[in-house]
Write a structure and sequence with these properties.
This protein has one domain (3-72): TusA-like domain (Translation Initiation Factor IF3, 2-Layer Sandwich), CATH 3.30.110.40. The chain is 32% helix and 36% strand. It has two helices and four strands. A four-stranded mixed β-sheet has the order 1-2-4-3, with helices on one face. The longest helix has 12 residues, at 15-26. It is globular and about 30 Å long.
Length: 76
Amino acid sequence: MSHHCLDARRLLCPLPVIRTQDKAAELHPGDTLEVRATDPGALHDIPTWCRIHGHEVLTAVTQDDEVCVILRIGNT
């Protein structure tokens, strides 16, 4: 298991979710992915995408006008 980061800052909806999906496809079950975005909609959109696709959201917070979502890749 390894930890990966994705910089989705300065991207507007739906690009943060699309980039998250693309990166998640490269990872293995159990890996974690930290996504940073400035689009406030990502705080809702990425966790929704995770639920649909079987990934676990570990944290989802807004900090200093930036969204940070950490997820664990599931067995999809």
